[in-house]
Amino acid sequence: xxxxxxxxxxxxxxxxxxxxxxxxxxxxxxxxxxxxxxxxxxxxxxxxxxxxxxxxxxxxxxxxxxxxxxxxxxxxxxxxxxxxxxxxxxxxxxxxxxxxxxxxxxxxxxxxxxxxxxxxxxxxxxxxxxxxxxxxxxxxxxxxxxxxxxxxxxxxxxxxxxxxxxxxxxxxxxxxxxxxxxxxxxxxxxxxxxxxxxxxxxxxxxxxxxxxxxxxxxxxxxxx
Length: 224
Fold this sequence. Notes:
Number of strands: 3
Shape: globular
Radius of gyration: 19 Å
Distance between the termini: 32 Å
C-alpha cells in the first residue's frame, strides 16, 4: 500500500483574505480547504493513478487553485501561529500519521507551547505518532516515548481522547488499531461501543478483534 496526501488550496478573489479558514502554513489569502487522500493497493495502483492524474489536470486548469503536498502545507509558518497548528493537528494529524509521516506530526507537536501540548487530543496524537515510529522504523526513542505516553493516558482516563482513538481504531495499520482498542478499554467511554463492536466483529486482524471485544465487555459490562 502507498498513500499520497495533497492539500487543496484555494486562492482568494482579488486579494480578499479568507478569514477564519487559513491553515498554519499560509497567509490570509490562502486556505487549505481539503486533503485528497489516495490509498492505493497493488492491484488498483494503475487505475487509481490514472484517476489521480486526470483529477490533477482538471484542478490545475483552474487558476484560482494551487495543489501542494501536505508536507509543504504544514512546513511553513507554524511557529508563529500555534493555535492554527493545534487546530491543524487535531483535524489532520491522524492523516499524517496514517500516511507514515509521523516525524512531521512529532515536529509540529514539539513546536507547540506547553499548554497546547497538554491538550488530550494532542497527547493522543503524540502517542500514536511515537507508536508509528516504533512500528515503521524501530526507533527506540519513539518506543520509550510511546510507552511513557501509554502509561500517562491510561492513568488520566480522559474520555476527551475518545474521538481521536476511534479514528485510529479504523486506521489501516493493525498496531494502531490494536492499541486504540486497548486505550478505549481503560477510558471506558460508552460512545466508543458501536465502533468497538464493529471492530470486534469484522476487523481482519485477530488480535485487534480480541482487543476490541475485550474493550467492549469492559465498557458495557456485557458479554460480547
